Amino acid sequence: MKIQNFLITSQNNKYLNNNLNPKQQSVSQKNQVVFNNVNDEEKERNKRRNRIIGVTIAITAAVITAAVLYRKRKRKIKFKTNSEIKNNNIPQSNTKLKNNDTTKKFIVINNNTNNIAKETNETNRAVNNAAEVMPTSELVRTTTGIENIPADLIKPDMDLIKRKENKTTNRYNPKNIIKNYFLDFIAVEKKGYKLPEDEANGIMVVGKSKEEREKFVNWIIKEANVYHHKVTFDKNNPLESMHQIFEKARKAETIFPTNNTRTIIYVENLDDFFEDQSSENRKKIAKWNRFAEHASEQYHTTILFHTDKPKKLEAASIAPHRVSPRVYLSEENNI
To answer: Which of 108, 232, 281, 286 is the most buried (most CB within 10 A)?
Structure first.
């Protein structure tokens, strides 16, 4: 009986299995199709996502690169303003320093071609001579009231100039240095042009013979044909001597606008003041330096002095932006 029941049950299960297998196979096939479709859609979405990510990365990199290049370019043309003179004891100018002053040298450019066309041949020659020293796009009048546009001015290396003079003339010629780096500048200035910021603040004449130095100083004053004063500097009373110089500089500032003629202040024994580098005298020299670096721009004044001991002088007091040009009366005097 049990065997018969088992056989019947086995047959029934076989029947059920035969009936269920096609359905199960159909469901499995359908599930496989659905799963394949899902996988294809997922792959497509991944491809689109990868494309979007790639494009986004490329655009971001391009923007960053452009920003870096722009910042570098902007940094190259950035201007730096001059610091204000803080010491109240220093003479204050009636004219203010311009905010677009830079560490580099500049010459002011204004577009007034009609006035330039009317300049005489003598003026054009002076401008051309100055242009050799001042490599700018053009030299233009500054008295027209048009907004000033600065152009780069690179100051020549004096050692290179010396070698050039030696190469062309077989000897060093101090008069040519004064002509090229001072007389030509003030000739242009007399015609209404503005000098670069650091030019013509001071001139130092170096030589072993005091007589020769004084002779050369007098030659500079004569050739410049400008207003001039002489002050004998008292190193034992430097503040009084500086006061005299400051007063003459103030006067020079008021005179200049009438005929565009600057003033030379010849300071005798100024090198003795610079030679004393005691802590007490250094404070007085610092006060002088704040005046000397703006003497030309603010007061239209040039400080002229001579010495036989340039290496003993306080370095900052004869720095290039305060004293330039420096001329040696002979190669032997280049000490």
So the answer is: 108
